[in-house]
Amino acid sequence: MSTLLTALAAAGPLAAGWSVHTVWLRRSLRSARRDPLTGLRTRDGFTRRASVLLKDPRAVVVLADVDHFKQINDQYGHAAGDALLKATADRLAYYVGRDGIAGRLGGDEFAAVVIDTHGTIGDLLAVLHGVLARPADGTNPTVRTTVSLGWVGAADHPGEDLSGLLRRADEAMYAAKQARAGVRRAGLGSLLATLSGRRAGRRGTALAGPWDAA
């Protein structure tokens, strides 16, 4: 009996240590899936949650890109650019709510998946576009821009995964940016030409053009 008690006593601190280590690992994992600037989920965290939401046929994928972001950074400094990104993220997250998911894919590009419960996503995104164009609170009111939005309904392309739907939303967003339309829905046809999974002319492709400064 004394041997057993001794063994249990020795194991106690070890078990407690593992418990603390497990909590630390979980917190580290959650932190790694959050963008430190905006607090939104990073691409990995966003993908995990978004893939679950896409099982609902009412799911809508939205891609948002800040217009003229490079010029704002160059003219007003990175602090102003960071404030704009944070404001965009906060407003997008508020719009998405608890039933959806928003993430920062990188740079000035954001994505969201929402459930279009009432079939009014087009109207809601038009309102969101106006909200995103407001100056960031507490910053120079002259630092302002718009955010181009592209969206696609999961039901429009049954069986297509998140990656494919994001590409379609990206095409629509680019078309909205070029036409200065603010918001555009992806068409029901085939994708436009892409290169390495990205729209031709998108940053990171060999066909980059002058629109990349937008």
How would you characterize the overall build of this protein?
With 214 residues, the protein is an alpha+beta fold. It is built from 6 helices and 7 strands. It has helices spanning 2-32, 43-53, 69-76, 78-96, 121-132, 162-179, and strands spanning 59-66, 101-106, 109-115, 147-153, 183-185, 194-195, 198-199. The strands form 2 sheets. Strands 2-3-1-4-5 form a 5-stranded mixed sheet, with helices on both faces. Helix 3 (69-76) packs across helix 4. It is globular, with a radius of gyration of 22 Å. The termini are far apart.
Précis, in short:
With 214 residues, the protein is an alpha+beta fold. It is 46% helix and 16% strand.
The rough form would be described as globular
Q: Spell out the helices and strands N to C.
A: HHEHHEEHEHEEE
DSSP E strands, number: 7
Percent of residues in beta strands? 15-25%
Low-confidence stretches: 20-31, 192-198, 203-214
Mean pLDDT metric: 81
Number of helices: 6
- How much helix, percentage-wise, in residues? 40-55%
Structural class: alpha+beta
Q: How many angstroms separate the termini?
A: 75 Å
For the CA atoms, what is the radius of gyration?
A: 22 Å
Q: Output the strand order for the largest sheet.
A: 2-3-1-4-5
Task: Tell me the major beta sheet.
Answer: 5 strands, mixed
